[in-house]
Design a protein that fits this description.
Number of helices: 13
Distance between the termini: 43 Å
Largest sheet: none
Helix content: 55-70%
Structural class: mainly alpha
Number of strands: 0
Length: about 230
């Protein structure tokens, strides 16, 4: 079910400012380069990241901190716009304010993960938004157990990557079980995520990761093994 967009005066203000300030910084030639680089996943305004962040500060200048309804409205309304820079704005906004959101925000996060899905938005949503929600409410890990089984590769990738920043708080048993569960997945992005998640956890528990990978090397794609052991 698609989450509803709540009424939000703050979101009204953000969207008015955003749709005035961002297009003014666009570059049509650069936009075509960005579309090509991102494999045509969405149109672009053509704003480079440093300029986009400067424009974001202008958009948010003087505005109050949002509550969960504001975050929901801003994110869903931004993702309803076609140009990718608006999606980036929403992801950055949620990264900054995820602590304002309860576990009830997870369906909204899933909606964003499955909208114009590509690594440029999904990976930040996974590590910073979904991961932040699970860290604040560990009971949500049970929903990650459902996401890892999902037929949508980006939902599964999110489950694999949601503990990316957990370090010592990583649930290693869950991480390892997820990697084994999707070890035979045919898609590059899932196989890459397996290796990335393991490589990141190896910064905290190198011996455990090496033992796990070596013990199950025959289950994993060479890409997953190579990524997992890259820094060991």
């Amino acid at each position: 079910m698609t989450p509803a967009v709540p009424d939000s005066a703050l979101a009204d203000t953000v969207l008015v400012r955003l749709t005035e300030v961002y297009p003014a910084a666009g570059d049509p030639f650069r936009a075509q380069e960005m579309v090509a680089y991102m494999k045509g996943i969405a149109p672009f305004l053509g704003i480079r990241t440093p300029e986009r962040r400067a424009r974001t500060r202008t958009v948010l200048d003087g505005l109050p901190r949002p509550d969960e309804a504001d975050c929901t409205a801003v994110a869903l309304r931004c993702f309803a716009l076609p140009e990718r820079e608006y999606h980036y704005f929403a992801v950055d906004y949620l990264r900054r304010h995820v602590s304002r959101c309860s576990s009830g925000f997870l369906p909204v996060a899933r909606r964003l993960v499955t909208t114009d899905s590509w690594w440029d938005t999904v990976d930040h949503l996974a590590a910073h938004v979904v991961g932040g929600l699970v860290a604040a409410d560990p009971a949500l890990a049970e929903q990650m157990d459902e996401w890892i089984e999902d037929d949508d590769l980006w939902v599964a990738r999110t489950a694999l990557l949601h503990q990316l920043r957990f370090k010592d708080a990583t649930d290693a048993e869950r991480l390892f079980s997820y990697c084994l569960r999707r070890a035979d997945h045919p898609d590059f992005f899932v196989r890459k995520a397996i290796g990335w998640a393991l490589r990141e956890y190896a910064k905290t528990a190198p011996h455990e990761v090496r033992a796990f990978v070596e013990g199950h090397r025959d289950r994993f794609a060479p890409l997953s093994v190579r990524e997992a052991l890259k820094n060991l």
